[in-house]
Description:
The chain is 38% helix and 0% strand.
Amino acid sequence: MALLRLQKGEVDIAGDGIPPAKFLEIKNSPNGAQMIVDGEQLHTGYITLNTKVKPFDEVKVRQAVNMAINKERIVRILNAAPRPPTSRFRR
């Protein structure tokens, strides 16, 4: 709703921001460059695994889950702003 009001010129700021699924569409639209203010944002999102519960108590399972997550795809969905972290597995 906020995005539609922004596009119609009813508001100057979309309070909730632009939904990730719509970001590239808006950015590439004729008026998109005028509507988007690009800035740095510090945010860390993460997924945790309870390593005391099977099957995550096995390091190989945790490694497999890590390899199965398409981090680059997640970055693309989030407007190519973040970068995937790197980490080491603890045993």
